[in-house]
């Protein structure tokens, strides 16, 4: 009998899906495994493959007490296939098949659509590891370095999660896609990753924290939407991935929060009251808040692009089919079919952004993006509380959804962070006021000197409030030379 709660570590591929009784899939995954390890060696964290890292590994899929912590060399991390427990009697919660029993096999007519969703989701996971592979060398502390590596190994596991679904349910096509997931490369002109933000560089630690706050949160919203799926194995996979994802957003939110904290403290210690006096704040060796705002503007808008076009037939088809639902679908009080409903979509009307009611089915990307904006806004408010507590007069704000967009309704327009549409020339003249300039990048880069003594932190970032797994402040989270 398959134990669906505890993870079996006796096989080469830890799992709670009974792989040892599923020889065909076990074989397919074992054939894929060496290529994955080669990819990890080539594209995973550079320079630390032999170090011992204090990592958590999932031992069960029970939301309470599911992980254990221990020192592991990353290439020896036990990546595995973990699905949340099945819900008995679960029915399709939306779309044309609303109320029918969920599927354990892929419905033939939805094969192509489902495969595309799995491949896009799968592609983002190795992409983020590739984007972050240089960061170990400039970690501001061993604590942060360990968090980076934890995020990286779990993104690797999320790739395994999608590869399992592709191999198990899509035969030869699935195997081919699984191989392609190891062949594309973030930022490569010939074989780039599929979505925009996953081809951008993550050159410094502030970018990493912004990425895990903003872009991993797109991951949260997309996984929440896929966790509603009528294809039950996908739903169960995503539900467990979300358990791990929460830590990634914690890393981002607390990382930016600690950066803010340190900047404000340094300003207070030096008697600097004016946050816009950038040169004086930078002379303290911390990241001035206006530059931090520019990074917010960049990462938020790159992440908004990940929701696709505001009006999308792809999204409508996936909803009708019962494959991809809305955020918290089962908590929404409506018909879950959206036959007559409308939804307001932000459009460019007479040269201004305006809400226009459209059929709700066509506006599902916009709706998920709005849910994302609300979720993101709460985190930004928590950052603003940190600033307010220090007495510094500054507020971080999310820019308007028309600002700096490459996908959808506003991709052809230029807008200010307040949403005012402007001409190309004004945009070019003011771009560096709103988005990080190369001089800003150079300054941040100049702060990225590594700190590897246990318990010490780079000058630009405050220590965390608590250690990982309740470890003391001077705990050696990474044994670099062991
Ligand atoms: N870049 O109808 P449209 C995560 C393409 S993050 C490039 O507007 P649709 C993670 C689109 O593919 C979560 N291309 O959009 C985070 C389509 O092309 P085709 C990842 C883009 O399909 C951090 C065309 O434009 N998971 O997990 O409704 C670290 C028209 O498409 C982009 C998912 O995204 C773009 N930004 O929505 C690690 C879930 N946007 O097919 C991990 C799965 C659109 O016509 N994906 N296009 O050639 C989806 O649900 C949808 O595919 C999207 C796009 C939301 C991405």
Explain the overall architecture.
Helix 1 (23-43) packs parallel to helix 4 (171-183) and helix 2 packs parallel to helix 4 (171-183). The protein starts with 22 loop residues before the first helix and ends with a strand. It is mainly α and 482 residues long. It has helices at 23-43, 111-131, 142-169, 171-183, 205-227, 232-270, 278-282, 289-304, 313-320, 364-390, 424-434, 438-447; strands at 52-58, 67-73, 342-349, 352-359, 414-415, 421-422, 478-479. The strands form three sheets. A three-stranded antiparallel sheet has the order 2-1-7. Helix content is 46%, strand content 7%. The mean pLDDT is 96. Benzoyl coenzyme A is lined by residues 117, 120-121, 124-125, 128, 155, 195-196, 215-216, 218-219, 222, 305-309, 312, 314-315, 324, 365, 407.
* Structural class label: mainly alpha
The chain-level mean pLDDT equals 96
Provide the low-confidence segments as ranges: none
Approximate strand percentage = 5-15%
Which ligands are bound? benzoyl coenzyme A
Count up the helices.
12
Q: What is the H-and-E element order?
A: HEEHHHHHHHHEEHEEHHE
Tell the overall outline.
Answer: globular
Strand order of the largest sheet: 2-1-7
Nutshell version of this structure?
This protein is mainly α and 482 residues long. The chain is 46% helix and 7% strand.
Give the topology.
Blueprint: H1 23-43, E1 52-58, E2 67-73, H2 111-131, H3 142-169, H4 171-183, H5 205-227, H6 232-270, H7 278-282, H8 289-304, H9 313-320, E3 342-349, E4 352-359, H10 364-390, E5 414-415, E6 421-422, H11 424-434, H12 438-447, E7 478-479
Helix pairs in contact: 1-3, 1-4, 2-3, 2-4, 3-4, 3-6, 5-6, 5-8, 5-10, 6-10
The structure holds benzoyl coenzyme A (BYC).
Benzoyl coenzyme A (BYC) binds at residues 117, 120-121, 124-125, 128, 155, 195-196, 215-216, 218-219, 222, 305-309, 312, 314-315, 324, 365, 407.
């Amino acid at each position: 009998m398959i134990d669906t709660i505890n993870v079996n570590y006796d096989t080469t591929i830890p799992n709670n899906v009974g792989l040892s009784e599923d020889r065909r899939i076990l074989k397919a995954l074992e054939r894929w495994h060496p290529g994955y390890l080669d990819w990890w060696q080539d594209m995973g964290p550079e320079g630390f493959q032999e170090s011992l890292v204090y990592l958590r590994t999932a031992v069960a899929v029970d939301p309470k007490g599911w992980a254990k912590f221990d020192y592991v060399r990353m290439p020896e991390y036990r990546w595995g296939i973990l699905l949340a427990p099945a819900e008995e009697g679960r029915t399709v919660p939306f779309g044309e098949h609303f109320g029918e029993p969920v599927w354990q096999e892929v419905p033939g007519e939805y094969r192509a659509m489902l495969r595309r969703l799995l491949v896009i989701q799968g592609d983002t996971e190795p992409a983020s590891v590739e984007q972050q592979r240089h960061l170990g060398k400039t970690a501001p502390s061993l604590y942060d370095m360990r968090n980076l590596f934890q995020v990286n190994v779990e993104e690797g596991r999320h790739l395994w999660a999608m590869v399992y679904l592709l191999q198990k349910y899509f035969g030869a096509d699935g195997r081919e896609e699984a191989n392609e997931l190891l062949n594309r490369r973030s930022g490569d002109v010939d074989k780039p990753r599929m979505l925009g933000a996953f081809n951008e560089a993550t050159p410094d630690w502030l970018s990493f924290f912004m990425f895990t706050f903003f872009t991993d949160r797109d991951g949260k919203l997309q996984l929440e939407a896929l966790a509603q799926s009528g294809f039950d194995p996908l739903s169960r996979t995503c539900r467990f991935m979300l358990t791990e994802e929460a830590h990634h957003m914690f890393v981002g939110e607390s990382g930016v929060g600690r950066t803010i904290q340190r900047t404000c403290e340094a300003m207070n210690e030096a008697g600097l009251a004016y946050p816009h006096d950038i040169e004086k704040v930078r002379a303290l060796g911390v990241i001035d808040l206006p530059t931090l705002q520019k990074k917010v503007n960049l990462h938020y808008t790159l992440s908004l692009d990940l929701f696709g076009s505001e009006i999308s037939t792809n999204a409508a088809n996936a909803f009708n089919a019962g494959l991809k639902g809305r955020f918290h679908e089962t908590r929404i009080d409506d018909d879950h079919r959206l036959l007559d409903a409308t939804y307001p979509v932000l459009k460019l009307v007479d040269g201004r952004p305006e809400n226009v009611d459209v059929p709700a089915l066509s506006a599902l990307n916009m709706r998920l993006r709005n849910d994302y904006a609300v979720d993101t806004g709460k985190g930004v408010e928590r950052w603003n509380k940190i600033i307010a507590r220090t007495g510094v007069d500054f507020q971080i704000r999310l820019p308007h959804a028309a600002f700096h967009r490459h996908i959808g309704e506003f991709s052809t327009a230029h807008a200010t962070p307040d949403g005012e549409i402007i001409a190309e020339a004004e945009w070019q003249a003011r771009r560096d006021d709103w988005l990080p300039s190369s001089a800003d990048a150079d300054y941040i880069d100049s702060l990225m000197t590594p700190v590897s003594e246990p318990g010490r932190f780079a000058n630009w970032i405050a220590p965390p409030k608590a250690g990982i797994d309740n470890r003391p402040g001077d705990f050696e989270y990474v044994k670099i030379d062991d």
